[in-house]
Amino acid sequence: MVKLHSFDTKIHKVDTLVSYKKDEWDEEE
Question: Which domain of life is it from (predicted)?
């Protein structure tokens, strides 16, 4: 369970980072 939770958190962090980058790119264009 603990491993799964930490894995979920990693995915969430990546997801947040990706959407943040997308927002930046959208602003540049």
Answer: Eukaryota
No. of helices (H) and no. of strands (E), the chain? 1, 0
pTM above threshold 0.90: no
For the chain, the straight-line distance linking the first and the last C-alpha, in angstroms and rounded, comes to: 42
Distance CA 27, CA 11 (A): 24
| Separation between Cα atoms, residue 11 and residue 20, nearest integer Å | 14
pLDDT above 70 for 1: no
